[in-house]
Automatic annotation (TrEMBL):
Its cofactor is heme b. GO terms for biological process: respiratory electron transport chain. This is Cytochrome B. Signal peptide: none annotated. The chain crosses the membrane at residues 12-31, 52-69, 89-109. InterPro entries: Cyt_b561_bac/Ni-Hgenase, Cytochrome_b561_oxidase, Di-haem_cyt_TM, Lipid/polyisoprenoid-bd_YceI, TTHA0802/YceI-like_sf. Belongs to the cytochrome b561 family. GO terms for molecular function: electron transfer activity; heme binding; metal ion binding. Its main location: membrane.
Amino acid sequence: MAATRTRYTTVAIVLHWLIAAAIIFQIILGWRAGDGPKGPTTFALFQLHKSIGITILLLSLARLGWRLFNPPPPAPVGQPNWEKTASHLVHIGFYVIMIGLPLTGWILVSASKINIPTLLFGTIPWPHLPLIPDLAPAAKHVWHQIGLIGHEVMVKLTYLLLLLHLGAVAKHQVLDKDAVFGNMAPGAMPGLKEPRAWLAAAGLAAVIAAGYLYMPGVKPAAQPAVAAEPALVTAPVPTAAVATAPDAPAAASATAPAPVLKDPVAWTVSKGSTLGFTASWSGEALEGSFTRWTADILFSPEALDRSKLTVSIDMASAKTGDDQRDASLPGEDFFATAAHPKAVFSASKFRKTGEGRFVADGTLDLRGVKKPLSLPFSLKIDGDTATARGVTTLDRTTFGVGQGEWASTDQIAAKVKVSFALTAKRK
């Protein structure tokens, strides 16, 4: 059958064009991710780069398996032996890079110091290579270097193979005027006037343009879910509380002066209250939030000396809108939640700085490091309801958040802004 076939099978043709488009697009993504600033957009490009790489691997294995049972058509009659040999070697080379490039990339990801999971196109979990992630740091570094060097070598080999392949196709189509291009473009005739050849060229240009124009969307951080039960979630920051008497008419609560509360009052938080953070990653704002946090609040503006607050934040609940990035935050390089699952802010000193403005001076225990921290906030009272908002800034490096390559502040700035917006009800 192979001897009488005049072109590749339909399955081989479809796989050829899919893999070709993916490789060209992948090259452009690699250039952009490697040359750009290491920010959220670049991170998203790398995640897509990984997804496309695994897709190329799977398609290439499928094509190789198909070829074993469906040999290619014979070479054109009269083709020189050196051209047949060169064509054979180029085809072998393409299988080497189509399988080897994703494998070396897979090694790089598996041996990375930061355990970032792979989700194909943000949806399908893809495992690391067995054993490599559990190696000792020195052995893991060796595998990382093997993957890195192998990947770089194969990228350069890809450039060479593409140049040879495209040059050979042009030679056969324009100079030799044989049926080689028709093997992958059924019905194509030799010569410059063949529309399928121009369609293939336009497709190549479109894929290149798509690689440069594609801009991944950086998802906004998910808003923290606040449970209705105060025992599950209460305010993560100090809030003041002054309210009218519980039996006061609702209409009068907005205008009647609030009674002075000489003793601290316990407060709980309503649904919709948020606790978030903003970091700067290569000049781009990276916003996140915590979805699980609790607090014990005892506070009154008239009893600042006896007010107190204890906040507990589940650090594994940090969300930035990217599942793969979020999965790395609990690791040793960032929050180290295995050893330090909670961050705790405690305050027993409060200052009034203006009308409806206060500051809580306390201590933040984060990643096993305790440092003083002041939280300024504004307060508005309406009956039994208090609303508070505030922003403060802390230095992540003083708490050890960011180890290894992330300890440097040239990519992720040292200063992290923490903000909150909440509504509290008096118990």
